[in-house]
């Protein structure tokens, strides 16, 4: 069963525009949710996690249990934000489920 | 040291070869993972080790054989692979306890099977 869904394969925005990368999940327990980012030719790295409720590089994500969503948002996109973004869910058994990823392209 | 290292970076092997991928971390993490990532696809979980014991095998073919000789090292032994096994193999580590299960990823080994 697909646990994490990212409906957009590619998202293109202009620099300075707001951006929202969508993530929906299905899980019966209390999920731990993460956003990972993979810049060109770099390793996969954690961007943020729902439990810490922090803002990293201007990105925020709020867990909405009613809508089972964990969308990633940034009010003003920068060119250096161009990368592949993966939403991920950690279940109670240390298994990570990754969404299919969204490629963000920020145009100048 | 907050990095996961993987060797080799690239590996080309024939279908009859035996090779091994290596992964190392010194963050005191007691959970380690192998993932397979095909181009433009998300990582797919293969194996999970928890406290040096195999806890999850995602129905991976036996031509892939993981090994966790100690809490810092994770190996993936390869034998009689197929061309479709060509992919980026990622190692990751994390703490075992809940609440702070961020996974740290290595740079990967790019494997090509001829």
Helical fraction of chain B equals under 10%
Beta strands of chain A, count: 11
How many helices of chain B? 0
Oligomer: heterodimer
Spell out the helices and strands of chain A N to C.
EEEEEEEEEEE
Mean pLDDT of chain B: 92
Q: Report the uncertain regions of chain B.
A: none
Largest sheet of chain B: 7 strands, mixed
Decide which structural class fits the backbone of chain A. mainly beta
End-to-end distance of chain B, in Å?
36 Å
- Number of discrete helical segments of chain A: 0
Q: What distance separates the N and C termini of chain A?
A: 39 Å
Helical residue percent of chain A?
under 10%
Average pLDDT rating of chain A: 91
Mind describing the biggest β-sheet of chain A? Answer: 6 strands, mixed
Describe this structure in words.
The complex is a heterodimer of chains A (108) and B (114). By secondary structure, chain A is mainly β. Chain A has no helices and 11 strands. In chain A, the strands form 3 sheets. In chain A, strands 2, 5, 6, 9, 10 and 11 form a 6-stranded mixed β-sheet that branches. A 3-stranded antiparallel β-sheet of chain A has the order 3-8-7, with no helix packed on it. The radius of gyration of chain A is 13 Å and the shape is globular. The mean pLDDT of chain A is 91. By secondary structure, chain B is mainly beta. In chain B, strands 2, 4, 5, 6, 9, 10 and 11 form a 7-stranded mixed β-sheet that branches. Chain B has a 4-stranded antiparallel β-sheet with strand order 1-3-8-7, with no helix packed on it. In chain B, β7 and β8 form a beta hairpin. Chain B starts with a strand and ends with a strand. Chains A and B meet through β6 and β10 of A and β5 and β10 of B.
Describe, in short, the structure shown.
The complex is a heterodimer of chains A (108) and B (114). Chain A has strands at 4-5, 10-14, 19-21, 24-25, 32-38, 45-49, 60-61, 72-74, 83-90, 96-98, 102-107.
